[in-house]
Amino acid sequence: MDEALALPSERAVTIALRTQQILAEESGVANTVDPLGGSYFVEAMTRRIEDQARDYFRRIADFGGVLPALRAGFFQKEIADASYRYQQEVDAGERSIVGVNAFTDDTPARIPLLVMDPAGYERQTARLRSLRRRRDAGAVGQALDGLRLACQGTENTMPHLMQAVRTHATLGEIIGVMKDVFGTYEEPAVL
After folding, report:
1. Contact (CB, 8 A) for 24 and 30
2. Cα torsion for 154, 157, 160, 161, to the nearest 10°?
3. Residues 157, 165: contact at Cβ < 8 Å?
4. 3-state secondary structure 115-141
5. What residues does each domain of the chain span?
6. What is the distance between the alpha carbons of residues 77 and 75, in angstroms, rounded to a whole number?
7. Torsion from C-alpha of 153, 159, 164, 167, nearest 10 degrees
8. What are phi and psi of 11, to 5 degrees?
9. How many whole angstroms separate alpha carbon 78 and alpha carbon 152?
10. Do 76 and 187 form a contact (C-beta atoms < 8 A)?
11. If pLDDT is split at 50, 70 and 90, which confidence band does 95 have?
């Protein structure tokens, strides 16, 4: 309801929860292992999705695998093309989206947005400063150095990540080490 605009409000969370509870408690759908099992409609859709997925796997294999397909911009192009087709269908009325191009209401929506406490940022930065004063800076440095070496080689990074966390290295410090070694991925622009 409001998650596209801000963090979900208490009201939006409650509506989502109540929807799930109605399905679970009132519909009877939870009283059987597979309420749609054997349904021709569901089985046909499942088969279609499987066939389309296998086709994508074949196309990716034709590129030589995921990495060459990424470098060629295959995934980005597929996503862009699918998004364009979808929007064209919505705009032309070929695809109905309730509240967008079907069953619309001209009354402005009154969606209460979650408002963040402005002092929250200050509290969090104060907590971070306090953590950095209290922790063992030497242990943090050693843990981050160990992580850097693991990233530069072929060693499993997970034990080093866990050690960095145990020494209270921050997420920013950990990511910084990994960015220094691996760089930052940028998608190729494919039109």
Report:
1. yes
2. 160
3. no
4. CCCCHHHHHHHHHHHHHHHHCCHHHHH
5. 10-92, 119-182
6. 5
7. -140
8. -65, -45
9. 33
10. yes
11. very high
pLDDT above 80: residue 63: yes
Nearest to 150, CA basis, from 165, 166, 167, 163: 163
Give pLDDT tens digits for 123-147.
999 999 999 999 999 999 999 999 9
134 is written with which tokens? 């209290």
Tell me, letter by letter, the H, E, C secondary structure of the chain: CCCCCCCCCHHHHHHHHHHHHHHHHCCCHHHCCCCCCCCHHHHHHHHHHHHHHHHHHHHHHHHCCHHHHHHCCHHHHHHHHHHHHHHHHHHHCCCCCECCCECCCCCCCCCCCCCCCCHHHHHHHHHHHHHHHHCCHHHHHHHHHHHHHHHHCCCCCHHHHHHHHHCCCCHHHHHHHHHHHHCCCCCCCCC
Residue type, 22: I
190 residue type, one letter = V
Note the pTM of the prediction, 2 decimals.
0.56
Whether 160 and 173 have beta carbons less than 8 Å apart is answered as no
With 80 as the cut, is the pLDDT of residue 190 above it? no
